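Letters spell out the chain; the tokens describe the backbone. To illustrate:

===
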Amino acid sequence: MKYEATPAEKSTVRITMTFTPEEWQDAINKAYLENRKKYSVNGFRKGKAPRHVLEMYYGKGLFFEDALNGLFSDHYEEILEKEEANFTAVGDPRVELGENFSEENVVLVATTPVRPEVTITAYTGIKITRFEYTVTDADVERELNAARERIAESVEVSDRPAALNDTVNIDFVGKADGKEFEGGSAKGYDLVLGSGQFIPGFEDQIVGMNIGEVRDVNVTFPEDYQAEELKGKPAVFTVTLNKITGKVLPALDDEFAKKMGSESLEAYTAKVRERLERNASVRSTNDTENSILAEIAKNTTAEIPDAMIENGEEMSMRQLENNLMQQGIRVEDYMNYLGTTREEYKKNFEESARRNVMHQLIIEEIIKRENITATDEEISAKIAEQAASIGREPAEYEKTMDPRQRAYIESDIKVTKLFDFLMANNEMVLFTEEKREETAAKPAAKKTAAKKTAKKEE
């Protein structure tokens, strides 16, 4: 077999594989031996008919496809290894027959998406926003109250109207243009007021209703509503309130804390604050790193192959499917509800997939340019840290590690070093939540005036 690899359009490489007639016949014979048991011919036991008999009975090209697949799979990975220094495949190839294909001219052409060339004009000396989130007493109080909500007792209410956060049981009949529409009616429906489960305005108008009361609720369907015939239309729902269920929150005391797994309210409050601070730290790091990459991306060009974007879309789609599955929702039902298909919905992730791919390419390129490495000592220290977290000895833990896990640890160390390098070599401007609030509070006219003044000064 001979091959030639040449650059093609949009970060792809065309690999042309040429096989001798002898290699082709060997592949045909191999395909025959592997597949002959699938075919029957009168006068022969199943799987025992000679190749020429099967080809005469079923057609000359009976084993062509399997032979071609065999030739390709036997050589493609080997070619990628040989060409490792020249390109890196990032997706599945598109395989076609060469021109004038025949048993004497066996040519396969694989168009393979490869990691694109990345051009970064600047990644140091840039002004970049650094994020730092803090935890306030109000944040802790909000989290404590949310915990109280989670373990609150449900109590049927009869001495007051429905209020926000109550669960109401209702019957409703919806009409648009005076006619009932599909999916607009139900009996005995449980709805949490304030959950945003229904279209805007519906739940607000249930607030204040008493048990047994009947009320017309007037709403307008959003312009982007999934049912085409209802988009932007006014509708009237005749609602009957059957039952109100309220919540009785536990007192904020030591008994409540014990239910949450702590000895005292003070201990539980400290645990909540620690968790919020840990989350704030992670959020600060993530947002700062994304800010760094977004700024460098402005100075970066790369011809990203479609396969890399499609892989990113697929990963996001699978994550969505896992989330739905955990909530007990079938993906098919969710797509039907939205009036779309899986493939159409997947396109919603195109922009984020493109951004994520570009960010990953930037990370890999700068690591290569700056020769950032992870030493054996650093990898061993990280392994020891992971082993300690699950109460195991480092040596024993390392023996059971998957090679991919070690590669991930090495990569994680390199990426951490990369961001340390980028933060040290760029002008990092702190942006806190307080500054965000200050900016949001300023009138637009003042912002415009400030911009004009700044331009004059420049």
The longest helix spans residues 265-297.
